[in-house]
Each structure stands twice: as C-alpha cells, then as structure tokens.
Fold each of these.
Amino acid sequence: DEAQLEAGFQATIDRKDRIEPRDWMPDAYRRTLVRQVAQHAHSEIIGMQPEGSWIGRAPSLRRKAILLAKVQDEAGHGLYLYSATETLGVSRDELTEMLISGRQKYSSIFNYPALSYADVGTIGWLVDGAAICNQVPLCRTSFGPYGRAMIRICKEESFHQRQGYELLMTMMRGTDEQRAMVQESVNRFWKPALMMFGPPDAESANTEQSMAWGIKTHTNDELRARFIEMTAPQAEALGVTLPDNELDWDEFWTVVKGGGPCNEQRIAHRKQAWDDGAWVREAAAAFAGLDTSSPRG
Ligand code: ACO
C-alpha cells in the first residue's frame, strides 16, 4: 500500500541511492522536481540572451568563437534538463508554454542586461561561478536523470567560468578605461549573482522538504556563503573590489515576479523564437511519421 511504498522510497533516499523514472514516487516529489528542473532548464535557455547579444559585436574572431561555443553549450544544457524533466511525464511543449505564459519561473539573474563587453567576462566569472557552486552538489541529487545531467553540465560550466575570468584578466592588463569597465561590470553583477542562490533560508518555502527528499543537499544561505568565500581571493588576484554583501530582497522578489529590467524582453524574445520554430517542429513530426525504411521513403 501507499505507506509501504513511501517508506521504501524514503529508505532509498536515506541510503543515498537514486530514484529513477520508473520507481514509485510521491506526487509532491514529482511536482517539486518538475518545478525545479524545468526552472533550471528555462534558465539555461533564457540565459543565452544577454550574452548572445554580444556575439555579433565580439572584439576579435577568437573571442567570437569562444562566446559562440559558450552560448551553444547553454542551449545543450537546456536540452539535457528538458529531457530529464520529460522522464517525469511532462512534455517540452507543455513546459515551454508554462514558461511563456509566466506559470513557471527562470533564474532572476537573466533579467539583467549585458551592457558592456566586460559583462561577458563577468557573467562567466560570477554568474557561471555561482551556478557551479549551486550545481556541483546537485550532481548527487536523489533523482537519477537530474543528477546525471548535472555532471555533464558542471564540466562545461567550469570552462565557462574560466573563459570569463581569462577575459577579465586580459582587460585588467589593458588600459585604465578597460579596468574601469571591468570594475563597473562587477559592481552591477555582484548582488544579482548572490541572489541566484534564492531567498534567505528563513524565507525559503521549499528548502526543508527538498532536503528531506535529497533533491537539495544544502540550504540557499550555505551555498551563497560558500560562493562568497570562493570568490574573494579570485577578486583579489584580478584586482577588482567586490561590493558589500547587503542584499535588497524587495528587488529580488520584484524581479522574480516579472518586474525586473529585462523580464518582458526576455519572454517576448523566447516566444518569438518558439513561434518562429513551429515549422521545424511540424516538419520533424511529419518526418517521424514517414516510412523512411524503404529507399523511396
Ligand atoms: N530566480 C528566480 N526564482 C527563484 C530564485 C531565483 N534566483 N531563487 C528562488 N526562486 C523562487 C523559487 O523557485 C521559489 O518559487 P516557486 O516555489 O514558485 O518555484 C521561491 O523563489 C522560493 O525559493 P526556494 O523555496 O528557496 O526555492 P528552491 O528550494 O527551489 O531553491 C534554487 C531555489 C536554489 C534556485 C533551486 O531551485 C535550485 O537549486 N535550482 C537549480 C539551479 C538553477 O535553477 N539554476 C539556474 C540558474 S544557473 C544557470 O542557468 C547558468
């Protein structure tokens, strides 16, 4: 019966084994995973926009090639994560509709604009750095497909973080204007990057249950503190000053609820891309329905 199934499920989690798609799971566990993994997938895809806007304006062929590869990686991460979400019984079409209609969230950080080329470096260093700090523990999350996707994603995120740091280091060796551009960019991104970890533990509605289920293994504040500690010596080596760590949680909730600087633009762009791609999805579905096994098929 249900109680026995639930006890077996919890025992699997408690001995740090994985829950797989065909295993029994409580509805609330499934719902929480769909919420978190879909939000994560949407963040990867929406996250292509701020940096993508710099591909056509990169200062050299080398920088352009790096940025192009990085933004493509983010698309790949979105696809791994949508696939992991699909194993829970929702389709990618449904998830995309929920994103576009505002019923599912994506990370607050991608509602801030990339205003200067230094932002490409800062996003790699701080935003992808924060993402790694949050995602390395998720490699051991209790749901198998999510944890396995995280392993591949973290490897690529490490490259992203390093390319960002290297870009900033190059600018810091340049002119006074370039150094000022880096500092200005870090000033704008530091607090939004710290907010990526989610609200303070006391206001985090989901943490306790998600930790009991082994979906999360650390609280939001624990990971935020770890990130600050990791980043301080990197800032020193780079020669930039990090702003203080006082966060404005009203700003965070405004951005999460759709009122950030770029929310409307991000969703409008995503919707446009989804609508423009309709013919590709239709053609792929029609092709899948064809008998291609015969030479004339
Ligand atoms: N941006 C937008 N919404 C957020 C953010 C954020 N940075 N942080 C928290 N929220 C939302 C939560 O989704 C939740 O709302 P919901 O219940 O309607 O879904 C609410 O704020 C309260 O937060 P928590 O209870 O703390 O939520 P949760 O336990 O899910 O923790 C966290 C949030 C830490 C972001 C978690 O979901 C997580 O680890 N997700 C995976 C990582 C991820 O999504 N990264 C995306 C950015 S990194 C990148 O793509 C490069």
Note: Residues 35-36, 39-40, 43-44, 47, 105, 107-108, 131, 134, 195-199, 204-207, 210, 216, 220, 256 surround acetyl coenzyme *A (CB under 6 Å).
Amino acid sequence: MERTFLAIKPDGVQRQLIGEIICRFETKGFTLVGLKFMKVSRELAEQHYDVHKEKPFFNGLVEFITSGPVTAMVWEGDGVVAAARKMIGATNPLSAEPGTIRGDFGVNIGRNLIHGSDAVETAQREIGLWFKQEELVDWQPTLSGWMRE
Ligand code: DAT
Ligand code: MG
C-alpha cells in the first residue's frame, strides 16, 4: 500500500492547526500509520531539504524547520502521495486553491504550514529519514470496507 510523509511545520503547530490538518486526511479516508511530535535537528533538516541545498532560500528553510516543534506523520492509502499534494495545495499559499490547506490557512511561501512528499520514491526516502521501521504501525481500519470496493 502506498505511503506518504507529511510534516506540519512549526507555523502550523504554533497556529494550532494540528487537529484541523490531521482531520482532513483522516476524514478523507487515508490511514495514519506513523505520528510523532518532535524538534528537528539541523542534520535531519539538511538531509530532508538536500534537493534544495543550492537554492537561496535553503538556509532560511533549515532555520525555520528547526525553530520549533513539528508533527511528523506517515499516511497510507491508494494514491496517497499525489492526493495529499492536492490537499496541501501549491507551494505559495497565495496561489494555492481555496479548499487546500495552504489555500485556506496561508499567505506566505516561507510559512506554508505543511510538507508533503512530491513522489512515491521521495516518500520512501523521507519516511526512511524520519521514521524507524518499528515506529510505523501496520493496521487495518474497520471502516475500510465502507471506503473502497
Ligand atoms: P513544496 O513544499 O511545495 O514541495 P518545494 O519542495 O519546492 O515546495 O520547496 C520546499 C520549501 O521551500 C517550500 O515548502 C517553501 C520553501 N520555498 C520554496 N520556494 C521558495 C522560494 N522561492 N522562496 C522562499 N521559500 C521557498
Ligand atoms: Mg518539495
């Protein structure tokens, strides 16, 4: 089953949006298989954002993600990687559609509330970076028969 990595960034935590954001993925029908509330080390932040290390905003990004607690999550479901990106919305919240998390709650690209893996391979890399195997829970929601054929 496909899995994605999501992280509610320090702004989402400070703005008390953890419950709201989790609610969207839960009620959509995806399954939570990993969750932790944590401070991010500089090393983890730099590895996580490695693809952006040459970008002018890299240092600010690392400073920001390490500035306060984040909510790291793994969610499971058919097509969850692409669907979660749609639910999160465009990188710049000002361009993100209403109805998306960034579209509904954000106004600034540097405060866009949540990270979501951009592809299945990226998700596998990020899950491995943030979670140990034993921190992920295999389980079958009893509702699943009402969510899919
Ligand atoms: P996304 O988070 O939508 O996958 P990304 O991977 O291109 O976006 O960039 C990672 C984060 O870096 C993004 O969530 C916010 C920040 N960022 C991206 N482009 C930026 C820019 N032009 N100026 C400032 N911050 C930027
Ligand atoms: Mg990205």
Note: The pocket of magnesium ion (ligand 2) is lined by residues 118 (CB under 6 Å).
